Amino acid sequence: MILPRRYIYLIITYIAMHFSSLLAIPFIPFLDESQLAYFSIYWQVGAFLVAFIIMLFILKREMKDFFALDNKRVGSLAFWSIIGFILAMITQVVAAFIQTFVLKIQPGSENTFEIMAMARQVPLLIIVITIIGPILEELVFRKAIFGSLYKKMNFFFAGLLSSFIFAIVHMDFSHILVYTAVGFVFAFLYIETKRIIVPIIAHAGMNTFAVVVQLSTDPEEIEEQMRLLEQLQSIIIGGF
């Protein structure tokens, strides 16, 4: 598979963003434990912002072409964005149910808990979670990777491969089914509308919903809900 040069640049930017923390190593000896935690979070926010600006610059021609269109199909795009959000939420719930009650995987994502703990410390991170992160991920995994794969193979295999990579990058292997399933929904939205803005909005909406729920719920309540769900899981599985 040969990707267009601009897509290669997108992927390189995304990878560089994740490994940019290596550049922060020289500063670590000068920070105490509390300073290190905040420094790490702010560094991540800065890395995402820089990557966001770079990616917009890489795709500036495509953005210009879109805004030059006489018929941008705003109504249709808004409709599919709403449908996409609903589909993503339903898919996430179904995949989580299968993981919990069929595959016997413990509920709750450690990755999500850690991110939300950091967001409580530095609220600026919420912008990354709800807006910048979804934009970067959709540009890389749907536009660059899935879009290029789809030209070489059918939807199922292109969606499966790109969604699987999407899941692996999140480093939350116990919940790989959820990430893969949701990735399929975003890939479908991209193909159906031919506009990357639709899966971006659906992805951002899903993340925003999760953030609102997490931040409006006391962490101790979440842990209690997880314990109750684990008990329910053992009862249902025991019944089989």
Q: In words, what does this structure look like?
A:
- There is one protein chain.
- This protein has 240 residues and is mainly alpha-helical.
- 79% of the residues lie in helices and 0% in strands.
- The chain is globular and about 55 Å long.
Task: Set out the fold topology.
Elements: H1 5-19, H2 33-58, H3 60-68, H4 74-101, H5 110-121, H6 125-150, H7 155-169, H8 176-193, H9 197-215, H10 219-239
Helix pairs in contact: 1-2, 1-6, 2-6, 4-8, 4-9, 6-7, 6-8, 6-9, 7-8, 8-9
List keywords for this structure.
79% helix, mainly alpha, globular, 240 residues
Question: Would you summarize the structure shown here?
Answer:
The protein is 79% helix and 0% strand. The protein contains ten helices and no strands.
Tell me, rounded to a whole number, the average pLDDT. Answer: 85
Distance between the termini: 46 Å
Q: From the structure provided, what is the oligomeric state, counting identical versus distinct chains?
A: single chain
What fraction of residues sit in β-strands?
under 5%
Number of helical elements: 10
E-strand count = 0
| Contiguous runs where pLDDT drops below 50 for at least 5 residues | 228-240
N-to-C series of helices and strands: HHHHHHHHHH
The helix/strand class is mainly alpha
Shape: globular
Major sheet details: none
The proportion of residues forming helix, as a percent range, comes to over 70%
Radius of gyration: 19 Å
